[in-house]
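Below is a filled-in request sheet from our internal design queue. Each sheet records the structural input a requester submitted and the sequence that came back. We keep these sheets so that new team members can see what a complete request looks like end to end.

REQUESTER: design group, bay 2
PRIORITY: normal
MODE: inverse folding
CHAIN LENGTH: 189
BACKBONE (tokenized):
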């Protein structure tokens, strides 16, 4: 590091940062450590299966706190408990409450009239079809003929292998809401 222009006093000295700079490689790790410590002080514990899922249980209900990069999803049966948690976290972090869940990590959440939740990846799928340049393809009544055998012999090599791998990886994420595609996605993998 170098001293800021116009502040040079001694060429051997550098500035000590009191907090992380957002663009530094270690900043996300430092932010997550601070968040984990803050949640731990609020009696949350990280799950063994997913270190980004925090759970707090009391005698009446359970509070779930899911974090992915800088997106956070909080759920519990009591809205007042969620609001008090948000107020507590705003003392440590700059948070913006976006209200009820509508879209999270490529998954659309549609609320029905009876209060249930329908998860869909329609926008994500359309974006993926556009990226793969097959949005205008003719739809088929079946997903894939199960007796078909895919081999590397006798097929043309794809123009852009990295694009193919990216699209196939994205198809794997679609299985979150569309499990009926698992056979077809497995075949192209």
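RETURNED SEQUENCE:
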């Amino acid at each position: 590091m170098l001293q800021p222009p116009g502040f040079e006093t001694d060429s051997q000295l550098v500035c000590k940062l009191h907090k992380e700079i957002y663009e530094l490689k270690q900043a996300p790790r430092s932010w997550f450590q601070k968040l984990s410590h803050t949640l731990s002080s609020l009696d949350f514990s990280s799950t063994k299966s997913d270190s980004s899922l925090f759970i707090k249980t009391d005698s009446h209900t359970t509070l779930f706190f899911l974090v992915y990069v800088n997106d956070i999803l909080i759920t519990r049966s009591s809205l007042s408990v969620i609001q008090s948690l948000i107020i507590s976290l705003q003392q440590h972090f700059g948070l913006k409450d976006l209200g009820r869940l509508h879209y999270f990590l490529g998954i659309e959440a549609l609320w029905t009239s009876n209060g249930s939740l329908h998860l869909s990846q329609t926008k994500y799928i359309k974006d993926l079809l556009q990226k793969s340049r097959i949005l205008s393809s003719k739809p088929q009544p079946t997903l894939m003929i199960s007796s078909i055998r895919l081999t590397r012999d006798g097929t043309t090599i794809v123009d852009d292998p990295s694009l193919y791998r990216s699209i196939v990886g994205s198809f794997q994420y679609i299985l979150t809401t569309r499990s009926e595609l698992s056979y077809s996605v497995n075949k192209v993998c």
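SHEET NOTES:
- The two ends are 45 Å apart (CA to CA).
- The longest strand covers residues 62-68.
FILED BY: M.R.
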